[in-house]
Design a protein that fits this description.
Radius of gyration: 13 Å
Number of helices: 3
Largest sheet: 4 strands, antiparallel
Distance between the termini: 20 Å
Strand content: 15-25%
Mean pLDDT: 83
């Protein structure tokens, strides 16, 4: 097993656990579902986190999206992770 891949998978497991412990629903697949988080390791970027809901009209409201992103960033930063936004803030990427 490649050391980089293993480290990325370890980081993904850690991020999933931290977000679950904080009360978020972390989906088992890449895609976020009704109010849950999609979390996966992208070898070129890091651990990617997306938030989704079947009520698409909620996602369009910048205030709600900003509140979820702030909560995610706060949880991850408090855990000591480096985070950046991608795709105009629709994804958070944890790099360490």
């Amino acid at each position: 097993m490649d050391i980089v891949t293993s480290a990325g998978q370890d980081l993904e497991r850690t991020v999933r656990r931290e977000l679950s412990d904080a009360g978020f629903t972390v989906e088992p697949s890449l895609m976020s579902a009704d109010g849950g988080l999609g979390v996966w390791h992208d070898p070129t970027r890091g651990v990617v986190i997306t938030w989704g809901t079947s009520a698409d009209h909620l996602v369009r409201h910048a205030t709600i999206r900003a509140a979820v992103q702030l909560a995610l960033r706060t949880i991850l930063a408090d855990a000591g992770h480096q985070i950046r936004e991608d795709f105009n803030g629709r994804e958070l990427v944890v790099t360490s």
